[in-house]
From TrEMBL:
Belongs to the HMG-CoA lyase family. InterPro entries: Aldolase_TIM, HMGL, PYR_CT. This is Hydroxymethylglutaryl-CoA lyase. Residues 4-272 form the Pyruvate carboxyltransferase domain. Pfam families: HMGL-like. SUPFAM superfamilies: Aldolase. The keyword Lyase applies. PROSITE patterns: PYR_CT. One of its GO terms (biological process) is L-leucine catabolic process. Keywords: Lyase, Metal-binding. One of its GO terms (molecular function) is metal ion binding. The lineage of its organism: Bacteria, Pseudomonadati, Pseudomonadota, Betaproteobacteria, Burkholderiales.
Length: 297
């Protein structure tokens, strides 16, 4: 069976926008359950301004504990600038992700910089991370539609993806921030982008606002993408992108992949255990589209 690679972003994208405060211990327990389920790549946290995202204020305490407990785990952290990189490195982070959006307004709302500055800061942050020996990812957010500017230009998305590749990002992550894409657009855009970024370094990060997350993942699979972000229980959403619902649920992606002949290395029962824990923490029902069926008795 052919392998696909999943990074579970629940601890970062999933928890960055929750009303209920989740303790560092509970974040560690969520990661423990993801690891038990067979997840081998997690986006653990973000080193952003605690004023902007108080939910991630414990990043500096979380990372050393994750490194000590799971030295083999691929654990990345989101950093928006050099200050974030400095804090991430001081905590012992081994991999960072920069975040660049394909429109002027989304960059301003998210990281308080225009597009040109965000591009420059992302390139500088990647270069500094490489000099420190860290691995890197680069998000290209609002790669399909922007909540402020509407449909984004494919040329712009392609240009930014190529710049991130040229800057040495180990993985370029094309993100549907508000879950607005449909399978035909995923096919069209990923087919163009795969000419600029080798498939071995190309990932897709889907949100599931319109119920098309799994169909979009299938579309990406068909054009050869094998690297996916997803979030256990489907939790997630950028606080600065109005209308962003949760991420594509890891359990939906794993189920679809399994039924379609792809191996993920992830146990569905193990994932359900992680989802049940997240539900207890967040005090509301969670789960992807397949949740009710997966949990049938
Ligand atoms: P700013 O206010 O413009 O920053 O914020 P500044 O450089 O003017 O500094 C202001 C203060 O913040 C200073 O402190 C800095 O030291 C501090 P003060 O002097 O006032 O005490 N500061 C920081 N503190 C901690 N960590 C840092 C940092 N940088 C500066 N890294 C900034 C700019 C980028 C910091 C802010 O806008 C921010 O933190 N934004 C957070 C954005 C965010 O977390 N968004 C969600 C993640 S992205 C996402 O979800 C999309 C994704 O999932 C993909 C997709 O779905 O599309 C990845
Ligand atoms: Mg996201």
């Amino acid at each position: 069976m052919e392998q696909i690679f999943i990074t579970d972003v629940a601890p970062r994208d999933g928890l960055q926008n929750q009303q209920i405060e989740v303790s560092t211990e509970a974040k560690l327990e969520l990661i423990a359950r993801l690891v038990s389920a067979g997840v081998n790549s997690v986006e653990t946290t973000s080193f952003v301004s605690p004023k902007a995202v108080p939910q991630m204020a414990d990043a500096g305490e979380l990372v050393p504990q994750v490194n000590a407990r799971w030295p083999q785990l691929r654990s990345s952290v989101l950093v928006p600038n050099l200050k974030g990189l400095e804090r991430a490195h001081a905590s012992g982070a081994k991999e960072i992700a920069v975040v660049l959006s394909a429109t002027e307004t989304m960059n301003r709302k998210n990281i308080n910089m225009g597009l040109a500055e965000a591009l420059e800061v992302s390139e500088k942050t990647l270069a500094a991370a490489h000099a420190l020996g860290l691995k890197t990812r680069a998000y290209v957010a609002v790669a399909f539609e922007c909540p402020f500017e509407g449909e984004t230009s494919l040329d712009e998305v392609l240009r930014l993806a190529a710049r991130m590749h040229a800057a040495g990002a180990g993985e370029i992550v094309i993100a549907d921030t508000i879950g607005a894409a449909a399978p035909a657009q995923v096919k069209e855009r990923m087919t163009v982008i795969r000419d600029a970024v080798p498939l071995s370094q190309l990932a897709i990060h889907l949100h599931d606002t319109r119920g098309m997350g799994v169909a979009n993942a299938w579309s990406a699979l068909e054009v050869g993408v094998r690297r996916f972000d997803a979030s256990a229980g489907g939790i997630g959403g950028c606080p600065f992108a109005p209308g962003a619902a949760g991420n594509l649920a890891t359990e939906d992606l794993v189920l679809m992949a399994r039924q379609s002949g792809f191996e993920t290395g992830i146990s569905l029962n193990g994932l359900l255990d992680a989802v049940a824990f997240a539900e207890a923490q967040l005090q509301r029902p969670l789960g992807g589209r397949s949740g009710a069926w997966l949990r049938r008795t």
